[in-house]
Amino acid sequence: xxxxDSPIKRRKRNDDDEMDITPMIDITxxxxxxxxxxxxxxxxxxxxxxxxxxGLAVGARNAVVISVLGGGADGALIYRGEKLASGDLFKGxxxxxxxxxxxxxxxxxxxxxxxxxxxxxxxxxxxxxxxxRVAKAVGxxxxxxxxxxxxxxxx
Length: 155
Description:
- The chain has three helices and four strands.
- By secondary structure, the chain is an alpha/beta fold.
- It has a domain at 60-152: Nucleotidyltransferase, domain 5, CATH 3.30.420.
- It has a four-stranded mixed beta sheet with strand order 2-1-3-4.
- A hairpin with a 2-residue loop joins β1 and β2.
- The longest helix is centred in the middle third of the chain and has 18 residues, at 94-111.
- The chain is elongated.
């Protein structure tokens, strides 16, 4: 009776004793999707940039200066020079402003041969798109060789 005729049958041992982690991966992806959808991105969060350690000083005496300030109803306010007088404001739609900026840079560099480059001074709260638009207009100038961008400090 000890042979194959035994009434007790033994179960075969499974070789697959590893843990299935598929449900754990599913839960991880569901949590990731939940947090991506439920999180709120703060567009107006203040970003404190560290001061520059490496860089060279650029003198405004040898440059055409264009100032870009925030607070305009249609975007940034763009001024000729640093004085920020209302007569120095580039007016019109963005296309007209770009043409006026290009003409201003060409006129200033041709009138004064000591001017070597262009400096765009922008406030910290000005959108990058506005500064890029001014930089694009300066890039269309035939006379401008170098362009520098600076951030105006709030006083």
